[in-house]
């Protein structure tokens, strides 16, 4: 019963202007996120210059004909219709980062909450390719989000001290999700990143 109530509250909290926002699994409460944040290793990131997106094999098959991108489009969209190849042919998507609604899947990117390069410079460079593949296609945590393509490109590989979602009302959910992914995958954070996340969690 408690889990049902929590899920209901999280859904309500993720609603902006009466339209439901996507809620990927595993978003912790603010209190849990603050505890997780306090436990993360804080250190300067090390960019060894060897990052390559191909080192994180992404959009692997998740179920049936659907790869991770198509899976998230179905999960986070409304009225999504797909063809036999699992390509979305219709539907609508509300981007939680900026509140925009799109009816063409081509206008939607699948964002890695913790960008692949950010993971690389904070510990993933020491992982196996298999582990990096799991990270890049993680549908069991709040790591993958369907968002406006231009907004995703503006974010790039930036951490919260350098980029925040246009919607300030999403700061709480964004920070809780970011912290959860870092915690789950035991990735380090920088001092500036921790300060920004603490400030965002204080909006909850």
UniProtKB/TrEMBL annotation:
Residues 1-18 form the signal peptide. Pfam families: GmrSD_C. Residues 103-198 form the GmrSD restriction endonucleases C-terminal domain. It comes from the Eukaryota. Keywords: Signal. This is GmrSD restriction endonucleases C-terminal domain-containing protein. It comes from Cercophora newfieldiana.
């Amino acid at each position: 019963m408690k889990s049902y109530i929590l899920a209901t509250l999280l859904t309500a909290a993720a609603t902006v202007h009466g339209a439901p926002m996507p809620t990927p699994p595993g978003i912790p409460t603010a209190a849990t996120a603050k505890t997780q944040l306090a436990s993360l290793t804080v250190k300067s990131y090390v960019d060894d210059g060897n990052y390559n997106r191909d080192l994180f094999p992404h959009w692997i098959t998740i179920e049936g004909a659907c790869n991770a991108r198509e899976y998230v489009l179905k999960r986070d969209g409304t009225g999504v219709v797909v063809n036999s190849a699992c390509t979305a042919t219709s539907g609508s998507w509300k981007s939680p980062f900026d509140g925009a609604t799109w009816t063409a899947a081509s206008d939607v990117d699948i964002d890695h909450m913790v960008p692949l390069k950010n993971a690389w410079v904070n510990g993933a460079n020491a992982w196996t390719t298999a582990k990096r593949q799991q990270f890049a296609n993680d549908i069991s945590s709040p790591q993958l989000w369907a968002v406006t393509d231009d907004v995703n490109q503006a974010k790039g590989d930036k951490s919260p001290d350098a980029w925040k979602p246009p919607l300030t009302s999403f700061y709480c959910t964004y920070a809780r999700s970011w912290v959860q992914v870092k915690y789950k995958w035991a990735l380090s954070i920088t001092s500036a990143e921790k300060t920004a996340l603490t400030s965002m969690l204080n909006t909850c």
